[in-house]
Amino acid sequence: MKKIGILVIGTLFVVLSACEKKVNCEVLSDALLQYDQEKAKTEINKLCADLKPHGQIGQKENLNTLVNQLQTQCGNMDVTLLCFACIETLPPQSEISVAMDSSSTTVCRIIDISTPDDDILSFRNVHICLTYD
User: How much is the average pLDDT of 50-65?
Assistant: First the structure.
């Protein structure tokens, strides 16, 4: 009976620890609006932490997962992948567009994500969109 209890507790621990990480959407929205790099980095990197690298193809899937998590968790944001590994730095960076409402005005920000082949995705920068349609 003790073994069954230990097995149940162990299984429960594994299931709970595998749950999707949550981003604080209010903190992230404020950080993006205010160009607060550190707060934005903290929130974005929460979601990136479990996205293991698997080369370029795997990283593109990871980036799509990140976009989907942001879109799903933060209903107040319209999140779109603009480009994958399009910024030719070492490692390459990708861009995600985030549109949100601020005082009845649509505000757009670009999040740059480091996209290495052999390491997890990570936040690099937030900047203004040049145009928004």
Answer: 89
